[in-house]
Design a protein that fits this description.
Distance between the termini of chain C: 53 Å
Shape of chain A: elongated
Strand content of chain A: under 5%
Oligomer: heterotrimer
CATH superfamily of the largest domain in chain C: Periplasmic binding protein-like II
Number of helices of chain C: 16
Chains: A mainly alpha (340), B mainly alpha (329), C alpha+beta (551)
CATH class of the largest domain in chain C: Alpha Beta
CATH topology of the largest domain in chain C: D-Maltodextrin-Binding Protein, domain 2
CATH architecture of the largest domain in chain C: 3-Layer(aba) Sandwich
Order of helices and strands of chain A: HHHHHHHHHHH
Largest sheet of chain C: 7 strands, mixed
Helix content of chain C: 25-40%
Strand order of the largest sheet of chain C: 8-9-10-1-11-18-12
Mean pLDDT of chain A: 78
Shape of chain C: globular
Number of strands of chain A: 0
Low-confidence stretches of chain C: 18-35
Structural class of chain A: mainly alpha
């Protein structure tokens, strides 16, 4: 059964999902749940969206993302913070908008259990969550993308080695890997210098490393198929160096695939930050993030549920928007064109 | 004997991957900061800590520790928990069945909903109900695990009080793994239902979409039009003729998810207080029980790899395109 | 049937069965043990799991000690008057100058494995506790606490003699040590590493099974030395770390009893209609406080600075609005602490001299500190990742910020936090401990913890987290352990309390009201102690369990 090379696969027949999953398996896919989810996102009717018009949903998604990026930047720079995220008020502690005692005046979204303004904390938390998520995906994007392209382009031993590396990283549950990486980075930072690296950076590196295999595999699959194309062979036969071929021919064509995955990846990273916060690992208090707002007041869920619900709603709407946008990008550039 | 060659090749690949993973988990855990002697005897004198370090074999060179470690694993010895001296294999035997049962229930619930929804959406592809189902699925995919867990815990657990918000009673698999008596099977399902639903919700969306996509393609095939021409009812066509060839991808993904869910249900276990592998892993990391952590990560990784290789392998044999390719040569 | 059909069919059937079972189970309150033996099978929710039960070396907190209370007996226990009275022992008598103590044992008491609780067994236990040469399973903390013990000897099969290096009049309290000094059977003590998981005591219950982080089941000891006890047939201890989850499980009927030390949960308990809540009375409660670390040398902290240290600590204490913190953290339900002691401990003062909240004065002090410290007043607050602790740290940080003290919060797991405190790597340690003392002394809880960091013999007292050296407190501690009358003790410990306040070694926060929540079907009886010694004391959240029963 040596016919497992991509060029041995007959013309695509069967459904899109069969294609995606099947091809991934043939190329050594050790499905992680994120990849499975990504595959699923791409197979819905939205995945079959037309390349021409943006749907209402897509516009809403763009609107929401723009909105939260705006409030995040405003909150972080201090231009407009919706209140003080660190000032605690006894009168408002644990009171939410729908609680029995009613909301305290001036606090539309209520306060957390330390009596701090939820609106202000969510605004500042938006910055932290987005910063960590985007940073992590940039790490995954750049390192994973690069490794994936190299792997797909050169093939052979390099490919086997890098794919093996990806597979090993994927065999450990993502959360566990992230936890271990954070612990390691924190410890090294402490022993290295007195002033440790900021916890946000540690999270970015940890989640980023976990994301490398995800981006890497997509980049690899894409690079692999593009490398087989005639114009690449032509460029090589004209004596173009590897570096030139990669940068001029492969990269521009692989970019849309990586971009689409990255948008979905940001969503995954946001959720990862939340998961890690619940498990006790995250940014240093009193810095808020969506994840640690939920984590800190998870114990008050039964008595003051508004805290968890408000932050959860932010996460949900953002992830939904990112999923939608990732889908739109993919449909626009039809990333699977190269797999025909 | 192509098949034998394939099996042999895959087996070799498997062993190599397992070796690498064992080295990786070994290394990962060794890199974690903090001296374990500090947790076991925080008030101990330096002399005592040095003695403990020697007893635990922490002073030896890395490669020596790895070789000892490998030798131990092959004999089924995963080491001991520092603070209690309990063999890690005993702790694994207690927590693994819990996670496996949770995974099984989650998969069953997911399939229970995904099968009919996926079939219906494919049958009515392009209609309003299809769009509705798909939008719901899309939304479900955007819900993080922990959000679902907390929301369900609050509404169904605390407000409506239909189900407990946490806790565990041994079920049907626990006695097989560690001989514990299950005195309260009814309670077991009670405790596991919310966590299983939480895990299932995300999977429902995925499975439903995969099935829908495959079914739409199948429904376009010739033999379906033939069946319709023969006058067979739509329901029968969907259930008896279309479902089977469309379910390959779905079942493959279900299989792949088996491995992923055993180690991936950590947050759900922590939120609902289910004493599975996920909860144990979290506790081990925070109490710096590195040998114990190593054992858990290894077990989860090995299970994941084994299941995936198996599913992988089955798929390769069963994929109609490859089969067609084979028969063509 | 095709394969897929079969799978689908099974899925539907299992699903239906599950739903049906759920329907049946949720019709009645879901409980963990449907059948009940006489006296009842009680489920008890604990705050945490303990993994190591080799008592001589285990570092148990209240949850672990609660289990110990069921499985083991201690030689003495505190009664409601705060006296440490003989319990497993029949008598504990001193010689004239309190340097030799004679412990008399009861006849016919046996461990769970049938071996006798005799002088040899007691000697073996005490040897391992205080760290006699060649004793098995010696720990590292208790030998420090019992550092004054010289030797233990068997006088006759039911009498043990303990010789001390220095006079200690409160020795009986040391035989309890907040419940840690359980007497183990020699079979457990001598089983090497297995001592940690092989629990054999003489207590009212014996261990039936332990599934870590899941359930510890103990069943009634039919040969218990107090006739007619225990009342319950079985107790299942279940660790539920999340306070809200524990309360919720009590409310839902999954737990029969639970304990909590969180004000939020205590308030929640009081709101639940049909359960009983038993709260500790004031007198001997645990205290929540912060330790201000004065380390010098390589890990020098501003609080230990020769010139500005005293002012820095005073500034810290003056800057905190404890009332507000208490209101937010505990809904005002806990009482602010006035020092290291609770109301019934000797030396308790309503006003020991700790500074009152005054942000203006604090700012002035901060300016003074900065002037003498290159313009810096930066400190690190050490806390665990526990949500409650983290919130407390954040409130403190907010208030310090208002007076110009820059505080960073550093979160560690419990073990690392202790290490950071011991090595002096943090400035403030948020801590909680029982320093109330019993009988007419503040021993034993204070002496090992607050003896000077630099010991007289040149070593280091690592468990003085505050790293201070203060002649006044040391003198008071040394004097206090030899005193024999309440009046003397009161004078000495009052001086001790004042010295602590003057030096601002700690920041007292509030007293912790441990509370036991229980279903109405559970009878929480505290039977009188044997030999007319009075009623037992419910202290440190540890409830005597021999009188528990369930209808």
């Amino acid at each position: 059964m040596d016919d497992l090379r991509p060029d041995a696969i007959p013309e695509s027949s069967g459904s899109t999902s069969q294609q995606i999953v099947g091809e991934s398996i043939e190329r050594g896919f050790l499905g992680s749940s994120s990849e499975i989810a990504l595959a699923a996102v791409e197979t819905g009717p939205e995945g079959e969206a037309s390349r021409k018009k943006l749907s209402i949903g897509a516009w809403l998604a763009i609107g929401w993302m723009g909105f939260i990026i705006l409030i995040a930047v405003l909150a972080k720079t201090g231009i407009f913070t919706w209140g003080d995220p660190n000032e605690s008020f006894v009168s408002c502690a644990r009171r939410g908008p729908f609680s029995k005692e009613g909301t305290a005046a001036n606090f539309i979204l209520g306060c957390d259990s330390n009596g701090r303004d939820m609106l202000a904390r969510l605004a500042l938390g938006t910055w932290t969550s987005l910063y960590v998520a985007v940073g992590a995906i940039l790490v995954g994007f750049s390192i994973g993308g690069l490794l994936g392209i190299i792997s797909g382009y050169f093939g052979g031993k390099t490919d086997t080695f890098l794919t093996g590396l990806f597979n090993i990283l994927l065999s450990v549950p993502g959360v566990v890997l992230a936890l271990a990486l954070v612990a390691f980075l924190q410890g090294s930072a402490e022993t290295a210098s007195k002033s440790s690296i900021s916890p946000e950076v540690i999270l970015i590196i940890a989640i980023g490393i976990v994301g490398i295999p995800l981006v890497g595999r997509i980049a690899r699959a894409s690079a692999l198929s593009w490398t087989q194309r005639e114009f690449v062979l032509a460029a090589r036969s004209q004596g173009a160096k590897h570096r030139r071929v990669i940068i001029k021919e492969i990269l521009p064509n692989v970019l849309p695939a990586i971009l689409s995955i990255s948008l979905l990846g940001i969503a995954i990273a946001i959720v990862a930050e939340g998961t890690l916060a619940i498990l006790g690992v995250g940014v240093r208090p009193p810095t808020p993030s969506w994840g640690n707002i939920i984590a800190a007041d998870r114990g008050n869920l039964f008595t003051s549920p508004h805290i968890v619900f408000e932050a959860s709603l932010m996460i949900f709407l953002t992830v939904l928007s990112l999923n939608m946008l990732g889908d739109v990008v993919r449909a626009r550039f039809d990333v699977r064109e190269g797999l025909l | 004997m192509e098949l034998t060659k394939l099996i042999a090749r895959r087996a070799v690949q498997l062993v190599i991957v397992l070796l690498f993973v064992s080295f990786f988990t070994f290394l990962l855990v060794r890199l974690l900061p903090g001296d374990p002697t500090d947790i076991i005897i925080p008030f101990g004198t330096e002399a005592k800590k040095a003695q403990l370090r020697a007893d635990l074999g922490l002073g030896q060179p890395l490669y020596q520790q790895y070789i000892d470690y490998l030798g131990n694993i092959l004999q089924g010895n995963l080491g001991r928990q520092y603070s209690s001296g309990r063999p890690v294999s005993e702790l694994v035997a207690q927590s693994l069945p819990v996670s496996i049962q949770l995974m099984i229930y989650a998969q069953l619930i997911a399939l229970l909903f995904a099968l009919p929804l996926g079939i219906w959406a494919a049958y009515r592809a392009g209609s309003r109900s299809d769009a509705a189902i798909n939008t719901t699925g899309f939304a479900l995919l955007a819900l993080p695990n922990f959000v679902v867990a907390l929301v369900l815990s609050y509404f169904i657990g605390a407000r409506l009080k239909w189900l407990p918000t946490g806790g565990y009673a041994p079920g049907w698999l626990d006695p097989i793994f560690d001989g514990t008596r299950s005195t309260d099977i009814g309670g077991h399902f009670n405790y596991m239902l919310l966590p299983a639903i939480t895990l299932a919700l995300g999977q429902i969306a995925i499975y439903m979409r995969l099935l829908r996509s495959d079914m739409i393609a199948t429904l376009k095939e010739n033999f379906i039009s033939m069946a319709r021409a023969k006058g067979i009812s739509n329901l029968r066509i969907l259930w008896r003729h279309a479902l089977r060839p469309s379910s390959l991808t779905l079942l493959t993904v279900v299989g792949l998810n088996v491995g992923a869910l055993i180690g991936g249900a950590i947050v759900v276990e922590v939120i609902f207080g289910i004493p599975g592998m996920g909860q144990k892993i979290t506790l081990a990391i925070f109490s710096r029980e590195y040998i114990e952590l190593q054992g858990y990560v290894l077990v989860v990784a090995v299970l994941f790899i084994l299941v995936n290789f198996f599913v992988d392998f089955l798929y390769t044999i069963l994929d109609p395109r490859i089969r067609r390719g084979r028969s063509a040569t | 049937m095709s394969r897929v059909n079969r799978i689908a069919a099974i899925a539907v059937v299992v699903g239906a069965m599950t739903l049906a079972t759920t329907g049946i189970s949720s019709a009645s309150a879901p409980s963990r043990a449907p059948q009940q033996a006489k006296g009842g099978e009680i489920t008890f929710g604990l705050e945490a799991e303990s993994t190591n039960y080799c008592l001589t070396g285990a570092q148990l907190a209240a949850s672990g000690i609660q289990v110990v209370k069921a499985v083991y007996d201690t030689l003495t226990v505190p009664n409601s008057k705060g006296e440490a009275v003989p319990y497993l022992a029949k008598s504990v008598k001193p010689n004239a100058d309190f340097t030799v103590w004679t412990i008399g044992l009861r006849e016919g008491v046996t461990f769970h494995d049938g071996t006798p609780v005799d002088a040899a067994a007691i000697k073996a236990n005490l040897d391992s506790y205080y760290g006699a040469p060649d004793a098995p399973n010696v720990g590292s903390l208790i030998p420090i606490v019992l550092g004054f013990v010289q030797s233990v000897a068997v006088t006759d099969p039911l009498t043990v003699t303990v010789t001390l290096k220095t006079p200690v009049s409160t020795f009986p309290a040391y035989l309890y040590l907040t419940g840690r000094m359980g007497i183990m059977a020699p079979a457990q003590l001598n089983s090497g590493d297995a001592c940690k998981t092989n629990l054999i005591g003489s207590g009212p219950f014996k261990v039936s099974s332990i599934r870590q982080n899941e359930a510890t089941v103990v069943t009634a000891n039919p040969n218990y030395w107090q006739k007619g006890y225990p009342k319950a047939a079985q107790i299942t201890f279940i660790p539920v770390t999340e306070g809200a989850a524990r309360t919720n499980q009590l409310q839902g009927g999954q737990l029969d009893m639970m304990h909590t030390s969180s004000a939020t949960q205590i308030a929640a308990l009081k709101n639940i209609g049909n359960i009983n809540a038993l709260t500790q009375k004031p007198g001997y409660r645990e205290i929540n406080y912060s330790v201000l670390v004065q380390s010098k040398g390589a890990t020098a902290k501003v609080f230990g600075n020769e010139t500005v240290g005293a002012d820095a600590r005073k500034a810290y204490n003056t800057a905190l609005d404890r009332k507000k913190i208490n209101q937010i953290q505990n809904r005002g339900t806990f009482t602010l602490a006035n020092g290291l002691m609770d109301t019934k401990a000797p030396g308790y003062l309503k006003n020991a001299g700790y500074p009152k909240y005054n942000p203006k004065k604090a700012k002035a002090l901060v300016a003074k500190v900065k002037a003498g410290n290159d313009g810096a007043f930066d400190i690190v607050l050490g806390t665990t990742t526990d949500a409650e602790n983290s919130k407390l740290a954040q409130q403190v940080q907010e208030q310090l910020d208002k007076v110009g003290i820059t505080a960073t919060i550093a979160q560690f797991d419990q073990a690392t936090l202790i290490n950071k405190a011991i090595s002096g790597d943090i400035d403030v340690l948020f801590w909680r401990n029982l320093h109330g003392g019993y009988s007419f002394s503040s021993d034993p809880d204070n002496y090992p913890w607050w003896s000077n960091y630099n010991t007289a013999s040149g070593g280091k007292n690592a468990i003085n987290f505050a790293h201070f050296n203060d002649p006044d407190t040391q003198a008071a501690l040394d004097k206090g352990r030899t005193e024999t009358t309440p009046a003397q003790a009161k004078a000495t410990y009052t001086a001790y309390n004042k010295a602590f306040a003057k030096g601002n070694f700690i920041t007292p926060m509030w007293y912790v009201n441990w509370t036991i929540g229980s279903q109405k079907s559970v009878k929480v009886a505290l039977p009188a102690l044997p030999d007319g010694a009075g009623k037992p004391l419910f202290v440190y959240g540890v409830l005597p369990v021999i009188g528990l029963s369930k209808k």
